[in-house]
Amino acid sequence: MAFAGAAATTAGATAGALPAQAAGAVVPGFLHGVASGDPLPDGILLWTRVTPSADAVPGSGVGADVAVKWEVAEDSGFHRVAARGSVITGAARDHTVKVAAHGLRPGTTYWYRFIVAGVTSATGRTRTAPAAGTAVQRLRMGVVSCANWQAGYFSAYRHLADRGDLDVVLHLGDYLYEYGPGEYQARDVVVRPHDPAVEMTTLSHYRRRHAQYKTDLELQALHAAVPFVVTWDDHESANDAWSGGAENHTEGVEGSWASRQAASQQAYAEWMPVRYEPGGHLYRRFSYGALASISMLDLRSYRSQQASNMVDPAIGDPARTLTGAAQMDWLLDGFSGAETQWKLIGNPVMIAPVRFPSTLSAREVGAVSQLLGSTTIDGVPYNVDQWDGYTADRSRVISHLRDNAITDAVFLTGDIHSSWACDVPADPLTYPSNGASVAAELVCTSVTSDNLDDILGTQPRTASVAVEEAFKAANPHVKYLDFDSHGFSVLEVTPGALRMDWYVLSDRTSRAATSTLSASWQVAAGTQAVSRVL
Amino acid sequence: MNAAPSGFPDSDRRRFLRLAAAGGASVILSIAAGTAGQASALPTRVTAPASRTRVYVLVVDGCRPDEITSALTPRLAALRTAGTDFPAARSLPVMETIPNHVMMMTGVRPIRSGVPANSIYDRAESVVRDLDRPADLRFPTLLDRLRDEGFSTGSVLSKRYLFGIFGERATYRWEPSPLLPVTGHAPDNFTMDALIAMVDRVDPDFVFTNLGDVDRVGHSDVSGTTLQAARTTALRDTDNQVGRFVDHLVAAGTWESSVLIVLADHSMDWSIPSNVISVDQILAGRPDLRDRVAIAQNGGADLLYWTGPAGARDAGVAEIRGLVAAHPGVLSISNPADLRLGPEAGDLVAFCRTGWRFSDPWVASNPIPGNHGHPATEPIPFFIAGGSPRVLAGSSSQPARTIDVAPTVGALFGLPAPKGGYDGTARIDAFGA
Q1: pTM (predicted TM-score)
Q2: Which of A268, A437, B386, B419 could form an SS bridge with A423, CB 3.0 to 4.6 Å?
Q3: Is B4 part of any domain?
Q4: What range(s) does the Phospholipase D N-terminal domain occupy (chain A) (predicted)?
Q5: Containing domain of residue A198, as a range?
Q6: Which residues of B are less than 8 Å from A291 in CB distance?
Q7: Closest to A403 (Cβ–Cβ): which among B85, B88, B354?
Q8: A196 — alpha (psi -120 to 50), left (phi > 0) or beta?
């Protein structure tokens, strides 16, 4: 997503905010935690990063190759080891370790750990997916996006880690941000500065930034507690990225986009618990028995350049694409051929159409525009970076859902630092009279990244409330909207209904932030429509 | 024993029962030859026996799953809540009445049963006709297989063509009456009278019932895509009829031994008059092709049959496919075998998009707004309810299909699978131990 403006001040770099290895941690060791991801019925992807020597810091390209042992066990004491092995890593992949453990039992909790030179990592806990086609009565997942290190602490991750009842965490992108200190933070305050202290543009930068995020203890705790299923949005590379560039990329001055994008993707593959490797594709699908499938989209690698504004006729040009042809075919085939009841889509940017209300003040219009990178033309869609800017692709999806009567499709979305529950209209023009909806869309808010009250400089749930009401009035399919809160969501999927709970943080800039259940909306099976629970 | 009701061919193999029904009317059932007992020997009323399990399949023809709500259809909604719901349930191609009722009763795909659609082009007779003859169905059904195992079965089918194809397979058959002109079906109150009379007097182990009003009104609802007032009225009335049946079972003391499988054969989609696809018109400029294709129109689907020289078939069919696929209202064109349809379905099956309909062999042939047969009409209600302690409450994600009815009912009766096995799956997660 886009934002405008930059901070005037920074809080200043402190030693405590730097990656742990820079502070003289013991080596060899595992200084960036352990993680798991991409659960299959018979396997799981395990991740860690080993620091074999003091100089082998992330992004350095320095350090010897090293053999790392790994173990997966059915108990936390590792008495019943289910799989084990050894893998070599080195500077070529920034000493990250990825292991695709297999031969495991479906729907089973496992514990895992790594060992190097007699040093054992923290123990992680993970869980395989249930076998295809089997009855699953409940799937519960954390849903998060937009975690800007500089804007606060990752209390959202801590609260999710503490729950102990999640099958998986869905991260919908903007897992990290590219900016240097002073370029994007909490309102005007850098709560903790990025490392390196520049906008990341090179492979070394991207590696160091990933490494910094992985030193966050709350993020480490969540990774160690629950497997992740991730996709990237734009800030894993640069703001408003598309296949040939990005809003926040200056060709030449910041190198070529091709090399910068490749660097970001390599670092992502190295540092994230994901099966993706450069040269492959990030979009992929998981299933949880007969209950649910999760299709994770990549809406950055194949997209055409954003239109200049929403009255640019390019937004409806069928030659432009958000998904790319191959990913679109894969997505639509996945709907038609689904052998699961719920078709969940990990959707980095919003698909429901959103039109700008005409009743806002100039100040409100400016603030929303800054938050959402939008046009300020009343009555037209507001964000050319979302599906609204690629209406031909959206029409393909909606027509496919409608013509094939696909039921129980739910888009799970991040990106825009706010909380939404929407119907996805079969036709926005007739929706107000017939309420026909082909899917639901549930948008989680940001872990820390700025939203409307931050930009307006107002207290949460004050000035923004009127703006939210205006948006809902102008967009009747938008049933719930919170432009202010930061936090996380928990999605519970059962055969009868799917429910999203939004939890809000007391203060993203406080390490001790509490969380409160703020709203709860459900999608009853077969309805393709959201309804309020709380 | 009575004479055959008017409107149906007599048969020397059939015997008839006249039973008292609600309001002093009478219901006439035909009985399979060789069935034990004469009418005079039948009990006047079932007494509640309890160890048996009675299974009733109720098809609310053409009902959409979203039409079952506590406000509009409280009795159906209550059954769904109290039983096991299958929210992912769907109809199977071609999403028409006859093939899906046949799939319910056989548990096999049309490629094995010979019944792919309501309307087909009969190459032997060179005519487009409904598959409404007993000989059209080439696979054994629950109605006869259970009978062969010593269970008694009943069919209470509101539509003339359903009675036609299932014919005399059940032990007890209601021959729908009175049949409304145009729709060719008996109103649900008469159908329910017949069902209640049948269970009241002869108490079959298994009864297959079709309630046709919701579908028939849906087809002809002139309010189409807007008010659907007549449809709403039909839903309320059919819900009342289902409620009558439940109340009757409770009053008779057989509710606790009853399992109800409630589903639709397909749902319904409405189109406006301008959204009509006519393959006849599409091929108007190509008489060389038009003269070599027969069209069996099935509302949301057209079945196309090459009737020209065999040597020209492949090229001709390919050309027709391309021309039809280019129409904006056409969703897809499939080879019948890919849909597990047999040769009866012809050479191509074309489906329309939501909000469209086919009208062939002439553009004015299909004036009705409500149609089915296309993928938009796949989602169906499907739930298993009843007072039997075997029935569990809850929801299941399993992909229930119309074809699952036969294996599910078969499992309840311990009936072995037919030769070659079922194509469907027994939805046993609706039942406890």
Answers
A1: 0.92
A2: A437
A3: no
A4: 32-128
A5: 15-532
A6: 397
A7: B354
A8: beta
